[in-house]
Design a protein that fits this description.
With 312 residues, the protein is an alpha/beta fold. It folds into 3 domains: 1-121 and 193-245, TIM Barrel (Alpha-Beta Barrel); 122-190, no CATH class; 252-306, no CATH class. Helices cover 45% and strands 13% of the residues. The strands form 3 sheets. A 5-stranded parallel β-sheet has the order 1-2-3-4-7, covered by helices on one side. Strands 8-10-9 form a 3-stranded antiparallel β-sheet. α1 runs parallel beside α2 (29-36), α4 crosses α5 (98-111) and α6 packs across α7. The longest helix is centred in the middle third of the chain and has 18 residues, at 145-162. The protein starts with a helix and ends in a 6-residue tail after the last strand.
Length: 312
Amino acid sequence: MVTKRILEILNGYSYPYIINTKSDMVAEDEYVHLLKNSPAGVIVQFTVISLDEELTKKIEPGAPPIGKRLEATRILASKNIYVQTRVSPIIPELTDRLEDMHGLFVTLKEAGTRDIIVEYLRYSIGNMVNPFIREWMSSALQVQQTYIDGIYSRAYRECSKTFPDCCKRNRARFGCEWDSRPKVKSGYIRMPLRLKLEKYRKFKTEAEKEGLGFYVCSEEFPEINGCLNCCGIKGAEARRYLRFKYDNEACANTLACFIRNKKDVSLNDALGSMFSVDKNIFEKQFSNLDKYLVNVKKTPSGKWVYDENFPI
């Protein structure tokens, strides 16, 4: 009952919160009562990576079946509790077919989900910093570890073939072109950015056909997030259910759009226009903003401008 007690404390302090879960327990009466009586609001996010129950049982052993998560979504939505769904991780070649995504979005919309939040699997190859992901995936899918390696190898080759100019320009910065292995970032390899962007664009179109909001759980493509904070929680509808006294406006998603509109931006420009929860940390990260954003570059004067070299 630790979670229940934490929610009681948060409610007591009028503190807004997001619950991210695979569990259908959140739709039980005692939790629904706490959610309905949250003074500062709450959003519940269920994780649903696929409608394929056989696949999800392998990848998420011990988690409730997808059907139970959908029923929990229906219950919460019927109580006017804001529900989003995290389709994460997306596994290339296994769960990212466009027709499968469309079917998933239709089902989630019918259950009462308002928004979709996506992120591709961050993977590891060989003796990298995080080898457990490789071991977990091969064990869950009952395949050789080199099987998923091959998926990521093909993705980088596809990117290089489909977007040769992009890969030539951005090889060093984004690791788009396949060499001996994909570019490693923070101990992981990721789907190549240019290819991932095209996938997200198509997924977004399918989601919007169903009247769903669509957001990317990363800071790479702020325009897809509509210049909102991660997960779209700053959206007008979502903010009726999640109310902050102080909102960290100065984040990567909002900054890219701010820079694009203002043309060139200094630290003072950013802090003069947006509130930051921790100005000291923000200042350190702002000096290396291109580590977090693909669409900005630094001028000789130390300001940031929008980089059309990697067009959204």
